Amino acid sequence: ESGVIPYAKMGYWDASYAVKTTDVLALFRITPQPGVDPVEAAAAVAGESSTATWTVVWTDLLTACDRYRAKAYRVDPVPNTTDQFFAFIAYECDLFEEGSLANLTASIIGNVFGFKAVSALRLEDMRIPHSYLKTFQGPATGIIVERERLNKYGIPLLGATVKPKLGLSGKNYGRVVYEGLKGGLDFLKDDENINSQPFMRWRERFLYCMEGINRASSATGEVKGSYLNITAGTMEEVYKRAEYAKSVGSVIVMIDLVMGYTAIQSAAIWSRENDMLLHLHRAGNSTYARQKNHGINFRVICKWMRMSGVDHIHAGTVVGKLEGDPLMI
């Protein structure tokens, strides 16, 4: 087509590029369209996730494009495949706003997954430089702090999810929490889609859950808990539910991945400021993590969520009804 210039010729491919310690590195699994050279496909991904369009423009002269271009510097065939390749791409750290997962992902995954040069694309891994990581708050607590709060050491922490996850009244929900904790569980948790429905409003659930927790703790002499889901339609409502959970004595709240990256970061900041543990349910994850040739590897999601500041994440299981890779978990 007239005016179209191959991305590799516009500077987005550089096999001799020396990776810097301050570079953000991304590993993509690319499946080029028939007839598209893997190097050109890798360069296209690098270009469209940084500064490029389909040709050069005079406004390129107004900035240091050579510096800000992402560089695809290596392409390797994926073992045991005939049409898939690993593309290694380096990004200048200044391309990304400090402490903003929304901005990081807008570049890395924002536009390239619908790109015509590839029939499938998967972000397999990322290396985030220390200088950029420090602009995120990260998780406020770790397993040591959680064990201190539960007063449980040297044994696995045992938890479960309340079932049925929809339809229970608040009183019966609290009864399930009590029976589970009294029976030996360390904690229970809300499921991803239990928020504030007509059969049980969130305030009612929180109150009955805390009643069950306190009764079970008194009966067993052990510290018990339950993850209260504060996911809501607006951040104002999320904060309202979080404040109420804290006021009734909960030390942990949970949110869903489908809330979005900015909402997750905001909830994590609130949790740190209020000395609350924050659990993340990976609801929606498999829409882009399950397919092995297209989407985002769950490994990357975990890194992003740790950067955001959640204390732990729902990671799936190697048994049961849902898909799970033992190596990933």
Automatic annotation (TrEMBL):
It catalyses: 2 (2R)-3-phosphoglycerate + 2 H(+) = D-ribulose 1,5-bisphosphate + CO2 + H2O; D-ribulose 1,5-bisphosphate + O2 = 2-phosphoglycolate + (2R)-3-phosphoglycerate + 2 H(+). Residues 142-327 form the Ribulose bisphosphate carboxylase large subunit C-terminal domain. The keyword Plastid applies. Keywords: Calvin cycle, Carbon dioxide fixation, Chloroplast, Lyase, Magnesium, Metal-binding, Monooxygenase, Oxidoreductase, Photorespiration, Photosynthesis, Plastid. One of its GO terms (biological process) is reductive pentose-phosphate cycle. PROSITE patterns: RUBISCO_LARGE. GO terms for molecular function: magnesium ion binding; monooxygenase activity; ribulose-bisphosphate carboxylase activity. InterPro entries: RuBisCO, RuBisCo_large_chain_AS, RuBisCO_lsu_C, RuBisCO_lsu_C_sf, RuBisCO_lsu_fd_N, RuBisCO_lsu_N_sf. Pfam families: RuBisCO_large (PF00016), RuBisCO_large_N (PF02788). Residues 12-132 form the Ribulose bisphosphate carboxylase large subunit ferrodoxin-like N-terminal domain. Its main location: plastid. Its cofactor is Mg(2+). The keyword Chloroplast applies. Its EC number is 4.1.1.39. Binds 1 Mg(2+) ion per subunit. It is found in: Plastid, Chloroplast. GO terms for cellular component: chloroplast. Heterohexadecamer of 8 large chains and 8 small chains. Belongs to the RuBisCO large chain family. PANTHER family: RIBULOSE BISPHOSPHATE CARBOXYLASE, RIBULOSE BISPHOSPHATE CARBOXYLASE LARGE CHAIN. This is Ribulose bisphosphate carboxylase large chain.
